[in-house]
Give the backbone structure.
Amino acid sequence: MQPVSQSKELLALLITLVLIIIQYFLPDFVAAASPFILMAGMIFPGIPHGAIDHHIDLKNKSNSYFMLFFLMKYISIMALVLLIWYWQPLLGLGLFLIYSLWHFGETDLRRWNSFSPLTAIVGGFSVLMLILSLHAEEFKNYLFYFGLNSELFPLWFYQAGIWVSLAGLSYIVFQVTKKQRLKTMLLIVVLLLGALLPLLLAFGIYFIVVHSFSGWSDIKNRLKVNQLTMLKYSAPFSFGAFMFFAVFLFFINQNSSNIQLYVSAFFIALASISAPHVWMMSKFYREATDI
């Protein structure tokens, strides 16, 4: 594993502490800046780390029809996810959380050299559940944005979620190797301190600093290319993703300026783009032997 990979949790901790200090003196500023900080992280490395999927399928590069088939599969999965959200938002949200927790868990446990389907599920579930449970009131708002009952889950569900998540993460601490244990414990500290920040920031620090940079590094190591080449590889699909978001929000704006629609539209678009990426990265990790 590359040295840069070993510093992600420490970097996340430092960023969390800095934001907590800023929030202490400027609470309104941090809350207002949260969406923009998350957006900046999505510009890089959030979207680009998922925009190289067409390069990680190394076996089919010589196939002239590879890109056509790749696009058809990608778009089909995205369309299916959008239809599920339209048909049944609760099912769409549930599926989004399920494949996200698998993706987070797989990336972390592969990086910690302790992957198994069980550890990936426990680790991903614990991380995601802890973030959401520590921000129960804000998560209720997002449920409302998705057109769901904000009281869908009772208070005890979130309280239990905290303890179940901590138990799951404790299990992971003892599953990873001694060399990786410190990083796992640092991540737990980051997640707990995230309770002092808005939900978007708490999630953004994990997703951007820990997860996205890890995925970016893993792909870069396997492809054996430099950062500039990675950016060139990711540019077409990154631009396509940005355009997808822009068009999606444009059509929402034609119907309403309601913030509820913007928030729900953003996360539904993110869910549709994430689904094929999770599938491709899982395939990537199964085939990778040199990261």
About this structure: The chain has one domain: 3-24+66-286.
